[in-house]
Amino acid sequence: MVLDDLGSSLRGTLDKLRGKSRLSEEDIEEIVKEIQRSLLSADVDVSLVMELSDNIKERALEEEPPAGTPARDFVLRIVYEELVDLIGDSTELPLEEQTILLAGLQGSGKTTSAAKMAWWFSTKGLRPAVIQTDTFRPGAYDQAEEMAERAEVEFYGDPDSEDPVEIAREGLEETSEVDVHIVDTAGRHALEDDLIDEIEQIEGVVEPDTSLLVLDAAIGQGAKEQAQQFDESIGIDGVVITKLDGTAKGGGALTAVDQTDSSIAFLGTGEEVQDIERFEPDGFISRLLGMGDLSQLAERVERAMEQTEMEEDDWDPEDMLQGQFTLNDMQKQMEAMNNMGPLDQVMDMIPGLGGGIKDQLPDDAMDVTQERMRTFSVIMDSMTDAEKEYPKAIGASQIQRIARGSGTSEEEVRELLQQYKMMERTIKQFQGMGSEKEMQRMMQ
Ligand code: GDP
Predict the structure, then answer these.
(1) Average pLDDT, stretch 149-170?
(2) Any idea which fold 4-87 has?
(3) Which end of the chain has fewer CB atoms at under 10 Å, N or C?
């Protein structure tokens, strides 16, 4: 997650303010230093860090907290507002006919993002096509075609042509029936002149409605120059940050957004075509600051529902907060979570859970790997309904029977029961915390 470090260190500093009603100048200094330290270590550009921290400091010193507002909430709100201001709205992408051009260095994730974005538009009821114009990188054509197939979207490319501009022109003609054209371009290792020439020519032919710069989240300080060059040549409207699953940094991408005076369009969070999220600034910053984000959770759950073909009434994440947690629930929820991503990511999106109790839980509580889920599922199939409803009544003889029946070991059955207990405890802990009221209270 981008700027993960900011979230946790800031929470640590802010927690020290608990119980205080007034902020001293030293308190503010300490908070501002903490913010600077984590932004710099996340590779955010120095001048940007200074600007942001100066604004926070000035406001924290000058503004009067409304009566009764704890100091911690007051600072949190200022930090939140300043970050919202820095990051801005997400890049506008209307759900209608349009052409999008992708630019970026080789390996930044353009080809993957093209297919992901096409998939995303297809989930919104539009008909997208990916046009692959990369004649430079061997294998680019095959990779793009395969990814478009996985995304179940249309694809155009020409492995025999060496003229990317011609491919772009033909691609648009051949796919004239579709709603959304996503044009992928070649990358190169560095910003060579011929790369810039080529993309300018493609831009001239494609006349995109939106040009997006694709950036690896780990890019660091190099982002500034790249962003500047691409912006000068084709005009960058937004940024796609990829590989957020692999880094806790991502500050370079923020620098690029600032440099191009643009915004973030999408976040890439994995190698599969579904591993993409539309950027939502409010939710993003809430998550960053550990406030949770219910709308993202809802979107993921909805997707998981579709995939597991469950009725909406059958499984609702809110159930997790209601306390009726049996092994039957665990089985259903494991299936759904399997599609939503790891439990700790899901928990990040529940208000009030962000940093607090999640950090205090044993790592094992989150560690339900797919492999274990499969074994657990087989074990649960060998249990009676009564056992699943009252797992606490399962004793040694039942464990023996269940292990035999499911072809697993008694140890594995015990592991499942252990996992269940941990999940039950976790869920008990966040009952009452995960309400929308909690979030509103924090934001007041
Ligand atoms: P391109 O050269 O810019 O077209 O980059 P590719 O789309 O080929 O991506 C380069 C590598 O990064 C590939 O191995 C992708 O699978 C991987 N990749 C792209 N996006 C993501 C992402 O969001 N997360 C992870 N983990 N890998 C990604």
Answers:
(1) 95
(2) Four Helix Bundle (Hemerythrin (Met), subunit A) (1.20.120)
(3) C
The ranges assigned to domains in the chain are 4-87, 98-280, 310-443
168 close to 136: Cβ distance less than 8 angstroms: no
Domain 98-280 in CATH 3.40.309.10? The answer is no
Choose which residue among 102, 110, 112, 199 to substitute to test ligand 1 binding: the one with the highest number of ligand atoms within 8 A of its C-beta. 112
Residues 6+ apart with CB under 8 A from 136: 164, 186, 187, 188
Determine whether the shortest distance from the Cβ of 108 to ligand 1 is under 6 A.
Answer: yes
Is this complex's ipTM strictly greater than 0.95? yes
Which amino acid is located at 260 in the chain?
Answer: T
Mean pLDDT of 168-183: 96
Query: Which CATH number describes the domain made up of 310-443?
Result: 1.10.260.30
Does the pTM exceed 0.80? Answer: no
Average pLDDT over residues 66-90: 75
Structure letter (DSSP) for residue 92 = P
Binding-site residues sit at 104-111, 184-188, 242-245
Question: How far does residue 444's CA lie from ligand 1's centre (Å)?
Answer: 40
pLDDT of 30? 86
Q: How far is 426 from 161, CA to CA, in rounded Å?
A: 57
Q: Is 122 in the pocket of ligand 1 (CB under 6 A)?
A: no
Annotated binding site for GTP: 104-111, 184-188, 242-245
